[in-house]
Amino acid sequence: MTPSEFNSLRDMLNKESGLVLSEDKQYLVESRLGPVAKKLEYKDVATMVSEWHSSKKASLQNQIVEAMTINESFFFRDKTPFDNFKDYTLPNLIKSKATSKHIRIWSAAASTGQEAYSLAMVLNEHKHLLQGWRVEIIGTDLCSEALAKAKSGLYSQFEVQRGMPVTYLVKNFKQVGTMWQLDSNITSMVQFRQFNLMNSFTGLGKFDVIFCRNVLIYFNRETKSDILKRMEAQCNNGCHLVLGASETLVGLNGNYTPVANARGLYEHNREAAVKNEKQSTNFKESPTHKTGTGGLSFTR
């Protein structure tokens, strides 16, 4: 593809999905879009991108965006976040939500569903503590193909072997030919929805736990800050935010406090949020400019 086509593709991906693609990532485009070009019977990726560049066909663009934003996922990935959920987050939720007995969990960028189902299996192991409770797990992703697989709950031998404790496999799956089918008591715990993180979060409702792992690394600083700010607006009191092992809130932190000895786990600080909100509303922009200052006059 020509430099012009590649730059146009980069701009489109950033606008539609927030994905930041540097100039040296043409190899990634080739690897991610190769299967799409083959499926659609294009000679190669360059030919497909060239046609998109000239036609801007919506259906083709959607398939390109979905292919470029697919993230790898596997059961109990990195283990630590799920240990933190079991040992810290869940006991805290049982105490703090004892009156409402209602827990909502969001798995953002859920891909093919392994993260959301891992959480469901942990919760199922502790169902004796949640009798009479309503627990909702919402998994969202931009890719319709990934979500279709997630909803099916059907995984290959390779997929169930990656990170899955044998006890969970035996308890929650049954073998169907060469594949493994997740039991309906687990799949029924999770709702999957197609959703773009660049869109408004208000329709998703409030959450007590947000898993947003290995997602922010693909965005620039401004987009990261924007996503975190909008996620904060969806936090119930004491909401826990879970990030990936290589992700940090340094320079981005709004009102999240790191949980000691729990890597990647943050707790929403409601008092700080309220204080900051009050401070921001106490500052009002003056309708007049101060002569010679080059800026606006603010009054408290």
Query: Which CATH architecture of the largest domain?
Result: 3-Layer(aba) Sandwich
Q: Roughly how many Å apart are the termini?
A: 55 Å
Helix count equals: 12
Number of domains: 2
According to CATH, what is the topology of the largest domain? Rossmann fold
CATH superfamily of the largest domain: Vaccinia Virus protein VP39
- What are the low-pLDDT stretches, counting only 5+ consecutive residues below 50? 272-300
What percentage of amino acids are in beta strands?
15-25%
Structure summary, number of beta strands? 12
The ordered string of helix (H) and strand (E) elements is HHHHHEHEHEHHEEHEEHEEEHEE
Q: Mean pLDDT, nearest integer?
A: 85
Shape: globular
Largest sheet: 7 strands, mixed
CATH class of the largest domain: Alpha Beta
Condensed summary:
The chain is an alpha/beta fold and 300 residues long. The protein is built from twelve helices and twelve strands. The longest helix is centred in the N-terminal third of the chain and has 17 residues, at 80-96.
